[in-house]
């Protein structure tokens, strides 16, 4: 193993952990640091491929002794910072998934992805509160709140966590639940990676085996009519129904259905837990807006949930930005279309509005640090940082944020805007807990809480 001259000797660390210890130039280093977002070029000083909570704890203790910050990644969906001079702990090897159908729970390791949980739960007529793509890691998604197709019925994924195992900045492995380390239990569920490295998580599964849903693709010429119809229709839906609408600039990919290749389209997404007949009645007003390019809505097993959003499964370079909206009046839709509609010349590949409300807005049985419950809609925009339009993506993201600023109320943790998204009366509590458990700021997280007072 090669070692950089600026680094302390990693021999003791390599002897203490079961997984690989890599430094720049070692075989496998580049693969270990590459995540889903290929635009996030990370350059940590050391990578530890953890295989257990003990490996994570050893790596944290070594980093502290050697005055290095610590970062963590599983799938790399949330990478933004370059992580220079840090110890990056990769948890992708810790991907165990165990389902207890009687208790309706799942217990997963830090590297588990939602697809594995969905597949393990489905034979028992159960489903997790995953997001729009099953390729995303369970832990990072959930500690950021976790908003998905079932959230209007059941709430954020973080609301249904029963127990956590976490390694804190002192290198200790801690059991965390409502009785043990209750402050951490409140803060980690919504506080993302600011409190430590979650090595195991246990959470509820929902009695959901199927749904009526999918997506309707409509032509660019109907974008204005579709968005205005959607903004008045969506809030009338019951909690058992979820919806989003996205402006898409689709690539000429042979994997896409022929009517969609290389086209600008408006994608209305819909899921309903009631019967297909009930779902058809609910969706009828949106189906009547315009002749679709493709209607892919129908009865589906829950395991087919990826078909609703059709997020790209392969890694790609991108930049994104999110916001929550307090309301969505006609003026807000017009402002959005003015900068991102089919005639605006925007380089953004996806601009999505998602209906919130329902159980998302209700406080969970055990309170947590999740933000965004008071919002009516979320907005997410993504630009691909490749090709001739890549240079215009940062400006387009800023322009969209400025256009909807009059209606913006904040941001969700997993889709942040500038600065950190934590706000409101719980922010001081979160900061106090973070500073108490990590006074030296050991964790160089990809979305760090901006400390407003000195360590104490």
TrEMBL record:
Coiled coil segments of this chain: none
Please give the cofactor(s) recorded in the UniProt entry for this protein: FAD
UniProt keyword Oxidoreductase, yes or no: yes
Alphabetical keyword list: FAD, Flavoprotein, Oxidoreductase
Where the record annotates domain FAD-binding PCMH-type, the positions are 40-208
Q: Which Pfam families match?
A: FAD_binding_4
Q: Which InterPro entries match?
A: FAD-bd_PCMH (IPR016166), FAD-bd_PCMH-like_sf (IPR036318), FAD-bd_PCMH_sub1 (IPR016167), FAD-bd_PCMH_sub2 (IPR016169), FAD-linked_Oxidoreductase (IPR050416), Oxid_FAD_bind_N (IPR006094), Oxy_OxRdtase_FAD_BS (IPR006093)
Family indicated by similarity: Belongs to the oxygen-dependent FAD-linked oxidoreductase family.
The entry's protein name is FAD-binding oxidoreductase
Q: Which organism is it from?
A: Pseudonocardia charpentierae
């Amino acid at each position: 193993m090669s070692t950089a001259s600026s680094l302390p000797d990693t021999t003791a660390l390599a002897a203490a952990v079961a997984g690989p210890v890599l430094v720049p130039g070692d075989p496998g280093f580049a693969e270990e640091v590459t995540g889903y977002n290929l635009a996030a070029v990370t350059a940590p000083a050391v990578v530890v491929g953890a295989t257990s909570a003990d490996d994570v704890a050893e790596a944290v203790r070594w980093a502290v002794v050697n005055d290095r910050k610590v970062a963590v990644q599983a799938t790399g969906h949330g990478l933004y910072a370059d992580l220079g001079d840090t110890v990056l702990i990769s948890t992708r090897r810790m991907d165990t998934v165990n389902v207890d159908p009687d208790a309706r729970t799942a217990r997963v390791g830090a590297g588990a992805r939602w697809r594995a949980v969905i597949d393990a739960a489905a034979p028992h007529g159960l489903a997790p509160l995953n997001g729009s793509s099953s390729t995303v890691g369970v832990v990072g998604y959930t500690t950021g709140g976790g908003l998905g197709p079932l959230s209007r019925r059941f709430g954020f994924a973080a609301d249904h966590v029963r127990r956590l195992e976490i390694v804190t900045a002192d290198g200790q492995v801690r059991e965390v639940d409502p009785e043990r380390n209750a402050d951490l239990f409140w803060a980690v569920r919504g506080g993302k990676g600011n409190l430590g490295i979650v090595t195991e998580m246990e959470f509820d599964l929902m009695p959901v085996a199927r749904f009526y849903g999918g997506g309707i693709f409509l032509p660019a010429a109907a974008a204005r009519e579709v968005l205005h119809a959607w903004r008045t229709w969506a809030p009338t839906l019951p909690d058992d129904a979820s919806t989003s609408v996205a402006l898409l600039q689709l690539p000429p990919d042979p994997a896409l259905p022929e009517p969609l290749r290389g086209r600008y389209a408006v994608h209305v997404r819909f899921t309903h837990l009631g019967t297909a007949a009930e779902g058809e009645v609910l969706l009828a007003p949106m189906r009547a807006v315009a002749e679709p390019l493709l209607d892919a809505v129908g009865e589906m097993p829950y395991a087919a949930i990826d078909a609703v959003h059709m997020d790209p499964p392969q890694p790609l370079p991108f930049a994104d930005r999110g916001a929550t909206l307090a309301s969505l009046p006609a003026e807000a839709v017009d402002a959005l279309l003015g900068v991102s509609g089919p005639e605006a010349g925007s380089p953004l590949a996806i601009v999505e509005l998602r209906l919130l409300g329902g159980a998302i807005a209700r406080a969970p049985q055990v309170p947590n640090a999740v933000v965004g419950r008071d919002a009516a809609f979320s907005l997410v925009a993504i630009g691909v940082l490749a090709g001739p339009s890549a240079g215009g993506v940062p400006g387009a993201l800023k322009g969209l944020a400025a256009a909807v600023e009059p209606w913006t109320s904040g941001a969700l943790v997993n889709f942040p805007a500038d600065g950190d998204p934590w706000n409101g009366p719980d922010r001081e509590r979160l900061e106090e807990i973070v500073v108490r458990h990590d006074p030296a700021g050991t964790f160089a997280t990809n979305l760090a809480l901006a400390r407003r007072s000195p360590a104490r």
